[in-house]
Amino acid sequence: MVLWFKDNAGIPLYSVDVRDKVSRQPAHWSAPEVFGSRAKFNIDKSPASLLIKNLKRHDQGIYRCRIDFRTIQTQTYRYNLSVIVLPEQPVVLDRWGRHINGTKLGPKEEGDDVVITCRVSGGRPQPEVRWLINGVIVDDQYEQNSGDVIENRLLWPTIQRSDLNSIFTCQTMNTKLVEAKETSYVLDMHLKPLTVKVINAPGTLVADKRYEISCQSMGSRPNAIITWYKGKRQMRRTKDEILDHNTTVSVLSFVPTTEDDGKTLTCRAENPNVNGLFLETDWKMNVVYPPMVTIQFGPTLVVDDIKEGDDVYFECHVRANPDWKKLQWFHNDILLQFNASARIIQSGQSLVLQKVTKQSAGNYACSAINAEGETVSDQQLLRVK
């Protein structure tokens, strides 16, 4: 006979009777309140073994196998069965004790602290609970909360841009017989732009001609929003293109005017998810255009009271980029030839007519020439009494 006992019990929980094997099969009996159909003693193999299926927590204990023989001394063997109860899957809580769903941690900003708690319930023996970042153990200090709940609170201070997509893993285990249970989260971050610059900008702009100017920003997550300004006025005619996950190019289409020469275009890149942080770059416009020319009487003249023998002078006002190279004067559309004996003198941007006669009357104009062209002013009528 083979009899199995547990702990100090005097009543067997399983038995095999082979005393009358010649006439019938061995008689197996399993206590229904202990193993029932979960246990089977196999005597056809050597060594004979007791197979217990679907192990339960309460199956743990010291088992005693007693073998009774017909003619020799009874033999007894003892086995200490330890039943490991695996812990439940770890759950992760934020700093306010709320369960974090999904697989994403954040999004966070640079300089933020990551404060998360891993909570594990159950397990015998008591499981270890530890934090790993990118597979490296960073915190293995845990404490028992209440009942069979164990917690490990991780403080990971002042995260940096380099921490983006780091994997935070809570791991628990209480045996090497099975793989550790894990719950992992990927750190998501909102990042400010790192660079902003105007690219492929022409050295000069021709007035009244349409141009497309590009501005590129890199490093923002999600991609930066780019806005253009001329002075304080926002430029609206833009189109954006996302080149990759952190590079954005904005193309501004505009027509510069002569008034834009020397003014500044500003390209601003910002991540609206990162409060108060943006980058700007300025680009000073060099707008070239033909001369803009006006003619006026000298400010001290009384235009309606000019008579023969008076001195008359005109001023030619020129605004040009690049600067004018040549200035000319016309009388009744005829180019004036200057000579002191004729009392027709050019001085800088002024025309001086000394001791005018009635032949001096008529329409006067001036013209200026630069690399962009020539411009003739409107005419100014001179009356001589």
TrEMBL record:
Residues 1-82, 87-184, 193-271, 299-377 form the Ig-like domain. It comes from the Eukaryota. Keywords: Disulfide bond, Membrane. Transmembrane segments: none annotated. One of its GO terms (cellular component) is membrane. Coiled coil: none annotated. InterPro entries: CD80_C2-set (IPR013162), Ig-like_dom (IPR007110), Ig-like_dom_sf (IPR036179), Ig-like_fold (IPR013783), Ig_sub (IPR003599), Ig_sub2 (IPR003598). It is a single-pass membrane protein. Its main location: membrane. This is Ig-like domain-containing protein. It is found in: Membrane. PANTHER family: SIDESTEP II, ISOFORM A, SIDESTEP PROTEIN.
